[in-house]
From TrEMBL:
The gene is xynB. This is Beta-xylosidase. The keyword Hydrolase applies. Residues 92-515 form the Glycosyl hydrolases family 39 N-terminal catalytic domain. Belongs to the glycosyl hydrolase 39 family. It comes from the Bacteria. Pfam families: Glyco_hydro_39.
Amino acid sequence: MNRFLALLSLLPAAAFAADPFPVSVQIDLSGNEGPMEPIWRFFGADEPNYATMKDGRKLLGELGELRPDEVFFRAHSLMVSGDGTPALKWGSTGMYGEDGRGRPIYDWEIVDGIFDAYRENHVRPYVQIGFMPEALSVKPVPYRHHWTPEADYDEIYTGWAYPPKDWRRWEELVFQWAKHCKERYGEEEVLHWFWETWNEPNIGYWRGTREEFFRLHDHAVNAVRRAIPGARVGGPDVAGGPGGDFLESFLRHCLEGRNAATGETGTPLDFVSFHAKGRPETVDGHVRMGIANQLRDIDRAFEVIAKFPETQPLPIVIGESDPEGCAACQGENLAYRNGTLYSSYTAASFPRKLDLARKHGVNLVGALTWAFEFEDQRYFAGFRSLATRGIDKPVLNVFRMFAKMRGHQLPAHSDHERELGEMVAHGVRGAPDVGVRAARDGRTATVLAWHYHDDDLPGPAAEIRIELAGWPGSAKPVIRQFRIDETHSNAFTMWRAMGSPQKPTGAEIRELMEAGGLAEMSAPEVRTDSAGKAQLAFSLPRQGVSLLEIEGL
């Protein structure tokens, strides 16, 4: 009880002062709006070597449990020279070197360990073919950087960001790696993987020209397809939605350009990828999120993809899809990351990505969250991550909620859900966004509700009343409610109530781990009428997310 009172004492008094407001929700249990697409099941990180470390393996296991063998992980630096020692925005595998006579030396031990960690935890690689090994770079010095959050971001762009000095050896390296993966994991397995070249070639990550990137990509794709003829290849994982005209130029190259590796017209393209980021800022002493910026990136990129009849039906993966750009950076405008603003933002943004895909008639299959963990850093250090020192953050529980939503999507409407066009243009700056999505799988329905606002300020709770049409008259369902808010599924609030310890005791760590899991709270009661409708009612605080699970319909 003392711990619970301590948690409540951390809430601002204004959170209790304002009168709640009513929200009306309608859901049709007999409707069907198509499959409930699990676009959430993609994750990634700058630092590939964390996957083989203690807390990294633990988190991979938690991600794999969400949807075994359907979760994908993308990492930078899988081809970078080095001994595998991790650091912020750095990783290495040392897969390529040359002997004294300039002959290639291949070493797969470290990269195998990374992919083994994925597969042992039922996660599959979204293979990023990059970056440039030191022995192949046209400008290898300096190569290893030692970046910190206090340093200039451009300091990370060293010898690994440059084109190869030998295009033939670049293609052969990629071929040997893909061939090795097929031999180690089996052809049937690697055919499930995604293969793409580099990262954000329209900004500092690529120090060559656009045409040189197209050449790099052509050779990489040709290499993968030589080793694994049916491999799923795509790209370009460009920054900033369409990245100006970069995405369109890339698509034109793949459709009708001269392939630098084969001399033929066009380059195989099985999926299209780009990145979309929000833009939080500090306003009058509080964080204001920039969800509109992220949605505009997506809107513009979908528009480009839909322009081409050949690419409109292709699967799309938003290869990084986050509230802002730099997971390892720190700052006042990034203070949202530990608490419920991040979780409510995530719950509110993912459905809108699918809404934008429907608007443009494109095939969105994945939106990758570029957040993992930072091994052996301070507890709740302000990085964008899913967990800290093995303690899960509130945002991870949103993905646990998403994972429970299976089957087909049900028609669902909230009278306080902000209109899509308004959010793309302005974000959520006036009235809050209280939205809902619902799914049904056999006799089980799930209802996700969120209460989001761009401004990290207290506000009144939403009194949600749900009307369920198509309720079976004889149903006696079991209803469970899972919740993320200041006192549920929230290890950060618990940690602050402990006094923010950087050396918690064993008992405190166990308590934090328990607090970091998805919490269940009392479920609302069902009231039914003779017209085949049922009503549920519950209160949802600002920045809260609830998942109702209704079994036995």
